[in-house]
Every structure is written in C-alpha cells, then in structure tokens.
Amino acid sequence: MRPYIYAQARTVREAVRGAGPDTAFLAGGTTLVDLMKLEVMSPDRVVDINRLPLDGLTLDHKGLHVGALERMSDVAAAPAVRRHYPMVAQALELSASAQLRNMASIGGNLLQRTRCGYFRDVTTPCNKREPGSGCSALNGINRNHAVLGTSHACIATHPSDLAVPLVALSTTVHLASARGARSVPLDTFYTLPGATPDIENVLRPNELITGITVPRSPWAAHSLYVKIRDRQSYEFALTSAAVALQLRGRTIVNARIAVGGVGTRPWRLTAVERALAGRPATSATFEAAVAGAAEGARPREHNRFKPALLRRTLVRALTELHENR
Q: What is the C-alpha to C-alpha distance for residues 66 and 172, in angstroms, rounded to an integer?
C-alpha cells in the first residue's frame, strides 16, 4: 500500500470540498482497502465519511429511502424491507459474508469494483485498471465473465447483488458534490465498457452517493431474488435473477426483471417483462418468455454455458415466486 493523506469529514460539504480524481471516500472500506493493498487503487487522499449524517431508513408514500452509510446487514434485517421489498433483503443476505455485511455500506456496495482476477492482478494487462493496456480476460480464464454488454476492451462482470433488484425496481440514486445535489436512475447510473471500461458510472470525480430511493409499486412486495453460484457461502454469482410480479388472479399484470452475473452492468430484461404481461402465470408462459433473455450475448471460450444457465435461473425464479405467493 502506498502512502496517502487521510482526512475525516463531518459534513457532506466538507467531504466533497476539494475532492478530485485522486480522492477516495472511505465508508465500510471492504472493497477500497483491499484494492489499495493490492495497489489496484492508489488514491493520494482518502476521506473518511463515516461521520456524515447519511444513515437512516424510512418508508413513506413515495417509497423506501436508505442512507448511503446504512450497513448491508441492517437494511436486510429492516422489517420495512423484508415486507415490502423482499428481493432486496434476499439479495443483501446472499452477498458476501456476515462479517462483511456488518461493515459494508449501501453506497459502497453499489460502487464496488469488478471481481475479474485480471483487474486485481497488477502484473497483467487490464483496460479497466490501466486504460489502453489490453484485456487479459478476452482469451484468458473467463468462466465468470460477462456475456452481455461486453466490448473488445472489457468483459468484466458487474459484481453487486444488491444493484440487480434495485435496477428492476427503478431505484433512484442521490448524489452530492460541491456544485449541489442531483439524482440519477440506477438503470442509467452504470455505463457500458465500450472503449473506456475504466469509466464505470456517471459519478463525477467530486461526487459521492448520499442515498437511494426505491419507489412504491404494486409488484415489489411479490418479488424474489435467486442467485446461482459455485458454492453456497461467500461467492459471487454465475447468474442471478430478481423477479417481481403483479398478478390479478392467475394473470400477470406487470413484471419487473433484472439479472446479474452475466452483464457488465445489472441487466434489465424489458423484453421478457413485456412477454409476461397479460399472460397466465404458467410454466409454459415462463419458458416462452425467457427464450430470448440472452439475446445479443457474446460468450467466450469458458463461459458458453451462461446463456442457458441464465434462462434456467429465470424460469426457476418465476416458478418459485408464483408457487410461494
């Protein structure tokens, strides 16, 4: 780990004042400290934001409001989340280990960096870590890598479980900088890698996440998160699916679906949602609707199984959600 300047901030204004490209904000530190030890990230200045008034969780007629510094385990255990947004609680509980969830913040989880091994190995080329150096994953060991949203420069998978249901539920991210506050839909917050995979989101150099709002909806309470991984403890997703259905009798009125583990960002499946709407909630409907879920996928040598696994994950999630309503 290289030397850096450490500072503490007590207000948002104090935290963002003077922040720039070489500043990192420290909350739970579960990703940042790891990457600093590996010298994947080497900020000149680290601003500890744990004393900022960015905690709290409330539910009102507009939706669920969560402060950026709320810990993952606290949000997962909150009765309002478990009752009204079950797939959010499930995604949090399937993330990392219990120790990490007790420390990691909601804002930090949304900004965690990819688990691509080449990104974390500073001895190998990686366009995300060092623009223009190349992508070792394209022809390397790419079993866990993305098949959707990839480019010639990067196929790294977005790692956050939490972001998947939040994208499905049209969550808004609230940001603050020295120039003021703004809000961005999470669906447009993450960027595709294209030729600049080092730019992962629309966050500006002097901005930090202050919180999120998950809107009220008639389908959020009837939702489920399914995660497929190599082992049941502390593992990132091979595929995951966040599904929510609004039913009238046996008919699907509305569906919200996003998937993880397969894309360079959380991947909303609006075509599958449209294919489900107005149809009876049956196995035949689910199978037909997800047939095109992986359309546009570009598998590599070791992850050719992912499109089929994605479709099976979606059918399982929809079936379990319908049978357990």
A: 11
Q: What confidence score (pLDDT) does residue 206 get?
A: 87
Length of the chain: 325
List Cβ neighbours of 123 (8 Å cut-off, separation of 6 or more). none
Mean pLDDT of the chain: 96
Q: Report the chain's terminal Cα–Cα distance, integer Å.
A: 50
Token pair, residue 292, equals 């095109």
CB–CB of 208/184 below 8 Å? no
Dist CA 106 CA 209 (whole Å): 9
- What's phi and psi for 272, nearest 5 deg? -70, -40
**38: β partners:** none
Q: Are strands 223-228 and 208-215 parallel, antiparallel or unpaired?
A: unpaired
- Name, in order, each residue with C-beta under 8 angstroms of 118's C-beta and a sequence gap of 6 or more: 124, 125, 126, 135, 136, 137, 140
Residue 232 clears pLDDT 90, i.e. is over it: no
pLDDT at position 20:
84
Q: What is the DSSP string of 67-80?
A: ETT-BHHHHHH-HH
Q: Which two tokens stand for residue 286?
A: 């689910």
